[in-house]
Fold this sequence. Notes:
This protein is an alpha+beta fold. The chain is built from five helices and seven strands. α2 (33-45) packs across α5 (146-168).
Amino acid sequence: MSTxxxxxxxxxxxxxxxxxYNHLHHRAAVGRGRAQFEAAGAAxxxxxxxxxAGAGVKSSAPRAEPRVAVEVSAGVxxxxxxxxxxxxxxxxxxxxxxxxxxxxARHPERGEESFVVELADDGTVWFTVTAFxxxxxxxxxxxxxxxxxxxxxxxxxxxxxxxxIVSAA
Length: 169
């Protein structure tokens, strides 16, 4: 049984993003060609991109699949923030690989975030982060406008890290 904390499940896949949330959309070119597309897709769906960006990841499966539980954490010691999520959709297609997870109870935010790699007709490999969220706990509300800024910074960081992973493949 799902314990997601928001009703608009799947909105990052189907759109439009729901009102009443902060929205995030970040797109970055991370490589070229089929081999780099496949390397990027594996890095995204097997949690390597998160870990390489400095996040802790615990998952009930080795790669993203619907209903898989995921705990993403950041910080140090007692200041470590844990975010409990559940995979709500995946894409393992010829020119599109990725997933979205939604927030569960005890996550500091409510909402959904997707991480998708696409291979364009011209051979460019694009990485896109799409999200909608709003504070769910006192410290997220207290951080106010800093939260969307931190989310944008982290999305850009994920793109840079993925570009580095792909270029080494």
